[in-house]
Please model this.
Amino acid sequence: MRAEGQADKRVSVYPQHISNEDFEDDSFYPLVIVSLQKVEDAVEGSEATIGLTFGVYGEDKEAWRDMLSIMERVR
Model:
């Protein structure tokens, strides 16, 4: 993915939260945080609900396009 004025950058994926080491600056963007929301374990099957949090950073007003692109790829 390439944001305006930046080189290609891979999307970082974090389980549950961003680690403290990565949170010290904005280098973790773009990101997806995958979090476990709910688990239902039944005799006939199980169901898990996850949450996806997307994040991007951009100085321009077009950063939303980067986020939409990431969301479309995950979908």
